[in-house]
Design a protein that fits this description.
3 domains, four-stranded parallel sheet, 12 strands, binds iron/sulfur cluster, Rossmann fold, alpha/beta
Length: 395
């Protein structure tokens, strides 16, 4: 109960801090054992403790004894998870599930074209309020849909190979309609890797693959592990038994994949580590004058790449801003849609901190939706910035 974990928690001040989550849970259990009726307490705890936890485990980074309150919350979610059959179906028909996500984004995009952004914003806010938050609110930062992608066969030439794992989020979510960057993360990443002289290879059946993170955070660890193993097998095959490096374009998914790899030999990289170890020597950087804001995701922190991300940003821009006091954005995959107040609370000081920046960078597309919404500037993947300021190094 030292409270060292509290400053990094996005829900502190909105609902509970990690310390309070643990203390309250312990108190509820003690009351239960003493035969006291805890129904009302449990009802409050559902929102205060469980629903408003981002479950990214940033608290564990600060805890002197390594307590990860996010893991406790995920365990509690899994005890209450009662849609196992739906989760099974989604895991088995992941390609179809992604089609549903594309359809939803297409419908939102068509509504924007029809009604105009301001009117859709007002209408969606009213509908979201009337449904008590069950209908997510549309914002101008919402991604446009990406069509089903044709990854094509590998060309197999003399260039070094890199396996590109485009995560489900980057396969579905394109840029926001008003964003000045209108290439998808996938196209931008492929172009950057090729500029640095790599031959880009995709795993087979790429559109059905997922690291399992959406299942894990919703409390379905079995389905999550099934998807993770399926993906690891596909990566093992695509990388010729672990011979080729694997580039994963989203930090949270990389973190999930590199944990507990056991005997599986895979050379897996998040964007920051791949760029600093494989691309920096192959590219010439001409830093831009425009200031850039950096958001270090929770996963980048867990992966130990925070300083490396800031250093890379400094190679790309002469002015780099790291907003103080923002540790986890609170978007947490889809919480930005389902519990938007967590995202808003966590990023309440962002706009002031970055108002003179021309753009922000990060390594998670979903975090970028919330960051763009609450900052007034567009947030992009790190590769957009690196691609803009580099050219192939002449050897
Ligand atoms: S979870 Fe860890 S850091 Fe937080 S109050 Fe308990 S002991 Fe301290
Ligand atoms: S996982 Fe994140 S939101 Fe949940 S208690 Fe820990 S720091 Fe707070």
């Amino acid at each position: 109960e030292c409270g060292f974990c509290e400053p990094v928690c996005p829900s502190k001040g909105l609902t509970l801090s990690p310390r309070q989550r643990i203390v309250m849970w312990r108190d509820i259990q003690a009351k239960k054992r003493a035969g006291i009726d805890t129904r009302e307490l449990l009802h409050s705890y559902q929102y205060q403790g469980i629903d408003t936890c981002a479950a990214t485990g940033l608290c564990a980074q600060r805890c002197p004894v390594g307590i990860n309150t996010g893991e406790l919350v995920k365990k509690l979610r899994s005890q209450a998870a009662d849609h196992a059959k739906t989760a099974d179906w989604l895991a088995e028909h992941f390609h179809t599930a992604l089609g549903g996500a594309r359809f939803t984004l297409t419908a939102a995009n068509s509504a924007r074209k029809l009604l105009g952004a301001p009117r859709l914003g007002r209408l969606s806010a009213a509908l979201s309020k009337a449904s008590k938050g069950r209908l997510p609110q549309w914002t101008p930062a919402l991604p446009q849909p990406l069509r089903t992608l044709d990854f094509g066969p590998a060309s197999n030439d003399a260039r070094p190979r890199v396996v590109y794992l485009a995560t489900c989020v980057s396969r579905v979510m394109g840029p926001a309609y008003a964003d000045r960057e209108q290439s998808s993360l996938l196209d931008k990443t492929r172009a950057l890797l090729e500029k640095a002289g790599y031959q880009v290879v995709f795993p087979d059946n790429a559109d059905s693959l997922c690291c399992g993170q959406p299942f894990a955070s919703k409390g379905y660890p079995e389905q999550a592990e099934h998807k993770r193993q399926e993906l690891l097998n596909a990566l093992l095959h695509a990388s010729r038994g672990g011979l080729d490096p694997i580039y994963c374009d989203t930090s949270p998914c990389t973190l999930r994949l590199v944990q507990d790899l056991g005997e599986t030999r895979l050379d897996l990289y998040d964007p920051v580590r791949f760029i600093r170890t494989h691309l920096v020597d192959r590219l010439e950087f001409s830093p831009q004058d425009e200031p850039v804001a950096v958001h270090v995701t929770c996963s980048t922190q867990h992966l130990g790449e925070s300083q490396a991300l800031i250093d890379l940003a400094r190679r790309c821009s002469k002015q780099v801003v790291i907003p103080e006091g923002i540790h986890c954005c609170g978007f947490a995959g889809d919480k930005g849609f389902t519990t938007p107040e967590l995202n808003a609370h966590s990023l309440r000081s962002l706009k002031n901190a970055v108002q003179h920046c021309s753009e922000g960078i990060s390594t998670s597309r979903t975090c970028e939706i919330g960051l763009s919404s609450h900052s007034g500037i567009d947030y992009h993947g790190l590769v957009y910035l690196v691609d803009r300021v580099t050219r192939p190094r002449s050897i």
